């Protein structure tokens, strides 16, 4: 576990109180109308989950599991094979790791500037300033987990112009208030609300189009490389001194069986534990809980805790804690 922001003052919490801060994979509540492409063929079967924080959903139907501010948001996307998330951008950082399945991420104005394929445990720190999308190219339903910078996740999503145009052809209009209106249900823009403006050609021309070779070295980390690098101590994956050097408003550590410790530590802000493989036992003063892949646990500030694998076999876990850094960097060619 990272040793940043350790505190001498510690807080106790009951098992029931901690369980309320655990979102189990089987309890995740999806939204199928979260974004403007919810009716667009090829994207209309995707599911969006907001686990911690409100995320960037454009739908009033979106369920938020944990509303406590963390300095970042945790979400997820679940998609059947060959279903894609349309090209978009955020004002803040967006980091994905693959929980299950095989995924193709692509980016650029038309989605053809570059691409990378990720599998279970791989992580992608996508810089702001470029349109990005993703598609499940596996044979089964797949899930990717997301970390978004900031408590308000940057205030929404910026869509490539063709996404907005295609959505209108299928009945969905995005207002300049960030809310969706479904003309198939008889909805229309309220008085005083106009359609979300599309980016101008001049604005689009300023956006960089980094190639696959530009992006991969500093923004993608492979699961098995991280396993090798974390055989003695937790690996700082994203952070000022991380494998993927960045200061997006949070740090991400990768912990395996060999680097896990029963020594307890705490932070002066909430932290999050997200297993990607194996079962993990989290102990704290007052109780313990077991986490499985797909579970998300929010540990309160100043609660001393530890996490170790609870069963034999392969085990890996991501640990996220907020920082006071700005929420994300714009693509600069690095």
UniProtKB/TrEMBL annotation:
Q: Name one Pfam family in it.
A: Cupin_2
Task: Name the residues that span the membrane.
Answer: none
Which segments constitute the Cupin type-2 domain? 84-144
Classification via InterPro entries: Cupin_2 (IPR013096), RmlC-like_jellyroll (IPR014710), RmlC_Cupin_sf (IPR011051)
Name listed for the protein in its UniProt record: Cupin domain-containing protein
């Amino acid at each position: 576990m990272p040793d940043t922001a350790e505190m001498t003052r510690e807080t106790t919490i009951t098992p029931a109180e901690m369980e309320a801060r655990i979102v189990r994979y089987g309890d995740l509540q999806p939204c199928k109308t979260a974004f403007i492409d919810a009716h667009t063929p090829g994207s209309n079967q995707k599911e969006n989950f907001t686990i911690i924080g409100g995320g960037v959903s454009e739908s009033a139907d979106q369920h938020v599991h944990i509303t406590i501010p963390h300095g970042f948001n945790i979400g997820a996307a679940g998609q059947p094979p060959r279903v894609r998330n349309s090209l978009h951008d955020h004002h803040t950082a967006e980091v994905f790791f693959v929980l299950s399945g095989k995924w193709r991420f692509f980016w650029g104005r038309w989605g053809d500037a570059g691409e990378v394929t990720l599998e279970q445990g791989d992580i992608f720190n996508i810089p702001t300033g470029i349109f990005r999308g993703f598609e499940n190219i596996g044979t089964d339903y797949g899930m990717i987990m997301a970390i978004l910078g900031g408590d308000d996740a940057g205030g929404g999503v910026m869509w490539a112009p063709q996404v907005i145009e295609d959505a209108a052809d299928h009945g969905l209009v995005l207002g300049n208030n960030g809310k969706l209106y479904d003309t198939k249900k008889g909805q229309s823009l309220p008085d005083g609300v106009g359609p979300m403006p599309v980016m101008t050609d001049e604005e689009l021309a300023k956006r960089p189009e980094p190639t696959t070779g530009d992006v991969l070295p500093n923004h993608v980390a492979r699961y098995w490389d991280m396993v090798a690098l974390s055989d003695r101590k937790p690996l700082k994956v994203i952070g000022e001194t991380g494998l993927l050097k960045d200061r997006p408003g949070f740090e991400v550590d990768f912990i395996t069986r060999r680097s896990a410790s029963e020594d307890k530590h705490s932070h002066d802000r909430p932290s999050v534990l997200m297993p990607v493989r194996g079962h993990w036992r989290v102990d704290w003063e007052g109780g313990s809980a077991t986490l499985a892949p797909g579970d998300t646990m929010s540990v309160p500030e100043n609660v001393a805790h530890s996490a170790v694998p609870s069963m034999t076999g392969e085990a890996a876990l991501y640990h996220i804690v907020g920082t006071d850094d700005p929420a994300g960097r714009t693509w600069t060619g690095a």
